[in-house]
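Response to reviewer comment R2.3. The reviewers asked that we include at least one raw input/output pair. We reproduce the pair for Pyrimidine-specific ribonucleoside hydrolase RihA here without editing.
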Amino acid sequence: MPRKIILDMDPGVDDAVALCLALADPGLEVVAVTATGGNVGPEQASRNVQAIIERIDPTRWPRIGAADPLQPLRSDARDLHGPNGLAGIELPVAEKANRHASVKVIADEVRNASGEITLISTGPMTNVAAVLTLEPDIARSLRQVIVLGGSVRVGGNATPAAEFNAYCDPGAAREVFQAGASIVVVPLDISEQMVFGYDLLEFVRARTSRTATFLAELLPGFYRAYRERFGMEGVCLHDIAAVLFATNPELFATDLMHGDVETAGELTIGATVFDRRSRPDGKPNLEVAVRVDVAAARNILFRVLENAC
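Raw output as returned:
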């Protein structure tokens, strides 16, 4: 039986690839895709979620949630993902008369399938924090929460100390870490290993599915941005790591840790602190991914995309 998931994301090119992966994997049932600002502002993120789903046109459409247009964010990543978050490609989008807030969509779907839903967050944790704190019963009703965020040993990518998703809304990240739900953290240490050379671009260009043709249009600008900004002949698809944890947890090794987020530091705001010491008074609140089988992860992405619609 497919695992029911909600994807809360801030598309973003790697979010778009993660969404394609989730929609194409027969082991998942994507019941909702909810937008949060992050890589782009909240309005653009909401538009991108809808546009990607309309473009792929999956057999079973998930519910769509819109980000709070007043969502406060410390940063964005348009310098890497392009002004619209999709590497500059323009996707048409139908006008929706009634847009449902992401937080409401998440809460509704979790209540409709109590104990069955895994919530996967690949952007700033604003919506996840709101759901877990404003709707306390939701934390108990979720099967699992998987968040892409923070770093254990590698420092940051938004600042020297802070990973992007935690940095954008550190208060939300702290609330999620402390919410008491079953939370798995897939940190930057893991996600930065999801690097793909031009073999991925060649792969999607050689196929004719709706998913492949979309990715063949989307990815070239992302490869170009990585080459210009980092000198890389490849791209890092951070967000697929969180989806892969839901579908293939055996690829990962995890440790139980106590984690928290700095919300006030002048130089360290958004930094995540994971206590790895063995202490009798230590009370871990998080399961943290510490290793991943990169080769197997790559193979799964190619295999799933091979059979995408």
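The longest helix spans residues 210-230. The chain has one domain: 3-306. Further pairs are available on request from the corresponding author.
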